[in-house]
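Assemble and predict.
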Amino acid sequence: MGNLLEGKKILVMGVANKRSIAWGCAQVMLEQGAQLIFTYQNDRLKKSLLKLIDNEDLLIECDVASDESIATAFKQIKQRFGKVDGILHAIAYANKEELGGEIMNASRQGYALAQDISAYSLIAVSKYGQAILNNPASIVTLSYFGSERAIPNYNIMGVAKASLEASVRYLARDLGKYGVRVNAISAGAIKTLAVTGVQGHADLLKVSQERTVDGQSVTTTEVGGTCAFLMSDLATGVVGDVIYVDKGVHLI
Ligand SMILES: NC(=O)c1ccc[n+]([C@@H]2O[C@H](COP(=O)([O-])OP(=O)(O)OC[C@H]3O[C@@H](n4cnc5c(N)ncnc54)[C@H](O)[C@@H]3O)[C@@H](O)[C@H]2O)c1
């Protein structure tokens, strides 16, 4: 238990279950004294979230595919909780059939969907979030090394992560004047629901683990440590950056 985030209210978007990176981040932020509010995509995800959080008052529906849903969610958050100090965006989606084989087989629609949910949603969340963010505040999103390297099967999601990282830089530039910092964590491969959508994910996880500096995959708690730091006032100088939290996989 620490007090890095004492007095801070943070919105956590993207907990699907206890394996979710957002859940690892939530645990560390709670330990550091933050008050958390959670969004869920739909009723199915709400049920799953209720297994982890028994206070329904802290949960708000937000499907990032819809501007209306985002606008309504942020309005409700402001009414119920007032302004917040941070937003964790841990959301991505692509159709399973797009995450395998050669990228030339990607469909126009599938590409657009991956970009919409995995990259544009950060811009939309920042736009509606701006009205409910304090000064200073911090927005943190989750990226992956596939933005820079052609990882087998990751394909259009890698392209979406490249867009996401570029969006972080542009958002950081534009939100800076409101005291809002925007950064990404590029996490190492972790077995979550999202990863199981990638063809051959067992190999991806195995190779990633082998390429860490100590042969141990990064954990959601370790990602959470960096998330807590980025949400805290210790990180006021970190702006528009992508920080690797992957146990060195990107080095080798
Ligand atoms: N697991 C990994 O190896 C890894 C590595 C680096 C980055 N990431 C990124 O971390 C983030 C979290 O993923 P995860 O691995 O914890 O998987 P996860 O499946 O636990 O979380 C993904 C979340 O995205 C949400 N989501 C998808 N579409 C949505 C929509 N339309 N509206 C609202 N929410 C929506 C899901 O409900 C889910 O909560 C993603 O951006 C992912 O790309 C994951």
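Residues 14-16, 20-22, 41, 45, 62-65, 90-93, 117, 142-144, 187, 189-190, 192-195 surround nicotinamide-adenine-dinucleotide (CB under 6 Å).
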